[in-house]
Structures are given as structure tokens and as C-alpha cells.
Amino acid sequence: MLAAYIIGGIVVILAVIFVALYNALVKLRNQVKNAWAQIDVQLKRRHDLIPNLMETVKGYMKHERETLEAVTKARNLAQQVASSGAGVRSRAESELGAALGKLIAVAESYPDLKANQNFLALQEELTSTENKISFSRQYYNDSVLRYNNQTMVFPSSLVAGMAGFKADDFFEITVAAEKETPKVSFT
Prior knowledge:
Blueprint: H1 2-58, H2 65-80, H3 86-107, H4 111-115, H5 117-152, H6 156-163, H7 176-179
Helix pairs in contact: 1-2, 1-5, 1-6, 2-3
């Protein structure tokens, strides 16, 4: 009889541990989804700003058609992969960020454009949005790190394997130009 109580107690303890680990994994997975939603909001904001920026810039940059087309193409690609995973989405968004960076750099050589209030306001809004994307991406990656660690450490890795929890992708910079240190020149 004592053996049955011991076995029953062990089963109950294992069940409680399983439920606790499962619930911890669910909470971490939900944090990752929430963090991704925050990135999604900021990326949507950036996508919405781009047409206004493009319209403002077009009148001044008639000879920069290639740069304008690159931004448009990158924005369209980013919107097409909006429902994809973090890996695909981060590559598309990195390309869009690089194209926007080139657009802003080219705009610097147009004094009338740099003085345009609408352009300045859009540039400030875009800069603010880029900062928010950066913070959201950092929070997302931190959430993914916690979640991935939990799915890989023992004993929760056993629960993760049985319950179908899989490691998530980080939101990474994939465009080489974004990884480079900016060059500052005061000449």
C-alpha cells in the first residue's frame, strides 16, 4: 500500500512539474508573439510614412530615379512578406532600411529639399520610427532568447519536445551596409 502512495505521489509531482514547465513555455511564447506585434506596429508605421516621403522627394530628385525605385521595390517586398516569419521579414526590412538610408543620403545633396518643412517633418518622423523599430527589435530578440533558452534547457526541453514548442528566429540584420559603422566627416 505504501508503494502505491509513493508511486502516486511521484506521478502527481511529475504532473505538477510538467504543467508548470508547460505554462512557463506558453507564457514565454506569448511574450515573443507580443514582442513581434510591437515590431509589426512600427514596421506598418514606417511603411505608411514612405509614400509621403517619396512624394515630397520626387519633385526635387528628378535625376535619382534609381534610388526612388529601390525604395519603392524594397517597401513592396517588405509588405509582401508581412505574414512571413522573422527570418524572411528581417531580411526584407533590412533591405528597406538600407534603401531608405541611401534615399536620405542622396537627399542631403539637394539644399532646397533639405530646407523643405514637409521633408524635414517626414525625416524626423522616420527617424523616430526607426528608433522605435530598433527598441522593438531588441525587446523581441530578448523575448526570443528567453523562450529559446527555456525550450532548450533540461527538464523543460523534454516538455517542449513533447508539446511541440520549437525555437524561434531572431530578428537579425542581414544587409551588410547596416552592420557597418557609420563614417562621420566634418570636412
